[in-house]
Design brief:
about 170 residues, alpha+beta, Alpha-D-Glucose-1,6-Bisphosphate, Chain A, domain 4
């Protein structure tokens, strides 16, 4: 199955200011990734081409990177996801910037089921929460995306599974 999943958000700030926020990605002071509610994103060799990492059970390698502009990752796990995802920062005008996250991958049958019933829902919630975090850095009215019932169920199931695994380890 071909998976193309795109999220966009307009941030009412110049690109230079938005790009500064993205320099904190994967750091202990990350102003982009919603590590408060999701597994943190980490890379073995920092934000550099060839660096391997990911978040939770999702693993990837950085294949392209232009600081303040663009980062592209190649999936390595879970199995069956053969493609990339990327994050772009684009100028709309002098005072508006668009941030975009795009997945472009082919999935095997098993990975397609995982995408349709689990990953897509969690991914969409995570990306919207990350975009909220970026937008909220520049506003006084906090934007908070709500989890739908299926995302709440999946997150709870994951927590219980993780607890059971730790309990029996």
């Amino acid at each position: 199955m071909r998976v193309i999943n795109i999220h966009k958000r307009t941030i009412y700030q110049p690109k230079e200011k938005v790009s500064q926020i993205f320099k904190t990605l994967t750091s202990k002071d990350d102003l982009v990734w919603p590590y408060e509610n999701w597994p943190a994103i980490r890379f073995k060799d920092g934000l550099n081409i060839g660096s391997k990492g990911g978040h939770g059970r999702i693993r990837y390698t950085i294949v392209q990177f232009i600081e303040g502009e663009y980062i592209k990752f190649q999936f390595t796990k879970p199995k069956g996801f053969n493609g990339t995802h990327e994050l772009r920062i684009n100028t709309i005008n002098d005072s508006c910037t668009e941030i975009t996250h795009k997945i472009n991958t082919k999935t095997t049958f098993k990975a397609s089921l995982l995408w349709v019933f689990v990953i897509r829902w969690l991914h969409d919630a995570l990306i919207e929460e990350a975009f909220d975090k970026v937008e909220n850095h520049f506003t006084t009215q906090a934007k908070v995306s709500k989890y739908n019932p299926w995302v709440r169920f999946l997150r709870e199931a994951y927590k219980r599974q993780s607890f059971q695994t730790k309990k029996h380890a």
